[in-house]
Amino acid sequence: MTWGWEGVEAMESSLDALAQQARDRARIAGSLPTYIPHLAQVDRQAFAAVWWPRDRTQRIWSTGAIHRPVPLMSVIKPFALAYLLHLGEGDRLRQWLGARPSKLPYHSLEQLRADGGTPRNSCLNSGAIALCAQLPGRGAVDRGDRFAHWLETQGGADVTVHLDHDTLASVQATPNSRNRAIAQTLAAAGHCPDPTAAIATYNRICCLAADAIALAHLGLQWIAPRRPFPQTADEAFLRTTLAMGGLYEDSPRFFQATGWYAKSGVSGLILAAHPHHGAIAVWSPPLDGHGHSLAGRWFLDQAIALMAP
Q1: Which is deepest, 54, 74, 135, 201, by most CB within 10 Å?
Q2: Residue 60: DSSP 8-state
Q3: Does pTM top 0.70 for this prediction?
Q4: What's the rounded Cα separation, in Å, for the pair 191 and 184?
């Protein structure tokens, strides 16, 4: 969507006001993820937001710590799917990997077992761990490096991705028994030949970091990829996955109400994209009870309402 000059000025002024209100919310509500000690030490008042319009002739709106790299955590999950789709794995993945919603939490072992060891979608931990077992490379380090290079290639000059070693060390110091059980269940179903390597790869790519500017640019790849997918079905599979799983249990309702694709992570990041409006990246560390950024989700909802026709 193209905005006239006065429309752009009004939109940016409104976004500035929403950003301040979001900061105020983060001061008094939400909690930091104590199960990852390094993330629990982040300043809860930190904030960044970027709107990168789909129309490249429009200027980018931004506020806050937009150049501070933040670990992507679960926001990385749909990009792992896109990576394998770009490598021509679409037909094989669609034979076993779902793009269906789940009414249970993102780390549910019960859901995976009820589905016979086949993940409902790749935004769940089970689906992402299964994808990590498929990434090309020899071991977690090589897989992670290749994936990071692909992300930078997809995003172009505006995207720099690096490994957040401190967050990775924190994740590794507090092993996740549920994720290990998920990997073993996937292995029993034939979707994870090496559970240990899959978990190591999963932990590593979740700790890749990028700033809000880079993340918003990567979000544009969901709606207007610089390099086309091998098949039309690949792009549809990615978008359906985001629509059904990006915000976990709330995903179908959110997408039906807004038409935006979105993915959140426990570092406080949320990335959202719309075919007409572009991409929004927002970062605010305190989380709500579902693991989404509390202030970030509020800001996103209000910004989307502003852009609605």
Answers
A1: 201
A2: P
A3: yes
A4: 10
